[in-house]
Amino acid sequence: MRFVLSTTVQAHTFDVARELQRRSALAGLLTGMPRSRLARRGLCGPEVLSFPLPVLAGMAARRLVMSQAFELRSEAPPKAAFDRWAARNLPEGDIFIATSSCGLETGRRAKSRGMLWVCDRPCSHILAQDRLLREEYELQGARWPGISKTIIDRELAEYDEADRILVPSRFAERSFLDHGTDPAKIWRLPYGVDLTRFTPGDTGKSDRFRVLYAGQKTHQKGIAYLLTAFDLLRKPGKELLIVGSESPETSELLSRAACTNVRTVPSVPRETLARFMASSHALVLPSIQEGLALVQAEAMACGCPVIATTNTGGEDLFTDGLEGFIVPIRDPLAIAERLQQLADDPDLQRNMAGRARASVQSLGGWATYVDRLIELARCQTEAAA
Predict the structure, then answer these.
(1) I want to staple 150 with a disulfide (CB 3.0 to 4.6 A). Which of 76, 171, 199, 322 is the partner?
(2) What is the pLDDT of residues 27-74, one digit of tens each?
(3) Greatest CA span in the chain, whole angstroms?
(4) What angle do CA 98, 329, 280 make, to 5 degrees?
């Protein structure tokens, strides 16, 4: 069984491609990332086809404009251009998996060849995503520019025409069921984690009670609720470390919070992030919506308990109260209460950290993910035969 994967920049696809290539099961990887970056990720060879011009041009334009509205409105043309290129260069294979919104034309071409077309949606149904973010921006007193209608139309067509929809979490699956998707059409498969890069290491916990956040600094990520929760935490020597790419929409919020115990740093290499995780007492992910944030499993692998909302995919990684805590969205008081528990009870924090590490190891890495993906594909093709 041979797989063809297609994505502009979706990171988990490269982990899957690398594992499929190791097994000689990768017929092709169609990507918008330059070959030099792919090589640094261990991906090279004749199976790897790159068309980076539309994606890089779009990224450059967004960096110049620095506007969420522009970013949302300008993402359709690069994805459509990439999709047309991918359709023209589609290798032969058995299973075609494309990241949602950039695989419509190529998926149709794949189906015409008798390939199984899987739409890989890394977060919630696009209409659920748009609704949740519209609500959040209104709550924060900001204008939600909305997802491009072209992107929404492309995604809805992909959901309808693809043979299967691949999602990483129960939260994402529920969002599709809520919008009338046939349950039999959904493949739910939680992501793996690179257990070689993310380990407890030799780094001890900080002397201060360190709370870590890692991700984009946007309203979607619930930054406002994290800052409120941290302010409610009563712990001498507490520290909040916020790691991730800057965003104009929360810059004022973060500047108001800047003080001796709140520190922000830009995006860092994985090795540095792993050290931050290993030295932190808890990672908080207060997101309003996402499919399954890999940062949760990475933190767990480093022995760092996670406090995450119901809309992060956390329930697919850990059990509430054992390896971490799951809280409602938009509830800073619930986050503060869980942080207070960990701060007041070092034994609870240590035990939860140990269970988190053991739990993510039992889930397996990307080899386990690909095992399950191949089994799903095998069962589907046998049923169709």
Answers:
(1) 76
(2) 999 998 888 888 888 898 999 999 988 777 666 555 554 444 445 556
(3) 65
(4) 85
Dihedral of CA atoms 105, 179, 284, 345 in degrees, nearest 10, equals: -140
- Give the angle subtended at the CA of 263 by the CAs of 259 and 267, to the nearest 5°: 150
**Residue 303 carries which side chain, given as an amino acid letter?**
G
Task: Tell me which amino acid residue 265 is.
Answer: V
Strand ranges of the sheet holding 164-167, from the earlier edge strand across to the other edge: 48-50, 26-31, 3-7, 95-99, 116-120, 164-167, 186-188
Q: Round to whole Å and give the CA distance between 187 and 169.
A: 10
Q: Give me the pLDDT at residue 257, please.
A: 67
Contacts of 247 (CB under 8 A, 6+ apart): 68, 216, 217, 218
Q: What is the pLDDT of residue 146?
A: 86
* pTM, full prediction: 0.90
The amino acid occupying position 35 is: R
